[in-house]
Amino acid sequence: xxxxxxxxxxxxxxxxxxxxxxxxxxxxxxxxxxxxxxxxxxxxxxxxxxxxxxxxxxxxxxxxxxxxxxxxxxxxxxxxxxxxxxxxxxxxxxxxxxxxxxxxxxxxxxxxxxxxxxxxxxxxxxxxxxxxxxxxxxxxxxxxxxxxxxxxxxxxxxxxxxxxxxxxxxxxxxxxxxxxxxxxxxxxxxxxxxxxxxxxxxxxxxxxxxxxxxxxxxxxxxxxxxxxxxxxxxxxxxxxxxxxxxxxxxxxxxxxxxxxxxxxxxxxxxxxxxxxxxxxxxxxxxxxxxxxxxxxxxxxxxxxxxxxxxxx
Length: 312
Hints:
Radius of gyration: 21 Å
Strand content: 25-35%
Order of helices and strands: EHEEEHEEEEEHEHEHEHEEEEEEEH
């Protein structure tokens, strides 16, 4: 099942995809957006947003994404609920196949598939995922009201998750394998001032402990001190893994140039990929900033560069 060729096809939604759609629609490029498996991206799991320009009060991530989507729709973007499973950039026009079996053709392609959270890779982590182990404090924090929880990581995500969890948990222990955080200083200052948070430095979680009677549940974590190699058991009811993200680039490993961490490589200062007419925007190409505002800016750039490409 094939569709007509459109000027611009956008794969994925979120700040980058929605902004690209808005600008492409304003350029009368009649953009079509394939929403993907997680419409709205990571901000759909973020409640309080206080660093997006234009809002003096705290806003909600899902609300911001709905507003971006509504604006793109108003401009004339066509939204399709599907997930792309195959991309062929050797043909002109480009061809993308959806999970539905439909073939989408386009003269230009904007990739905004984002990134997903990484996991520790422990067998016990997999066992208790959804039963005390989570990758999203906003999604699951409510279930740990007045309970002790653990956050694993040392970047912005880990600190933000820990701060959010203090709304529900009685105590939040941040476990970090180094002796200092990588998070922004303003976030660190908030964390160190919060008396409901404590930090275990130079420590790694080796195993997540729990029981299965009468149902699966977490009871604690086995922690190793990376300096002394001493192992201790830390009781807790919830474990939140916040150790980074993995770009959603599995579709592009053999057709686009990726960097050592599997992010899509672009020409410096642009969103141009290794294939002319294919552009990448947002967290799928940005491993440094990973902010909604920078993703939106890259989405704008991608749309403008796609328009220039089509003009040529």
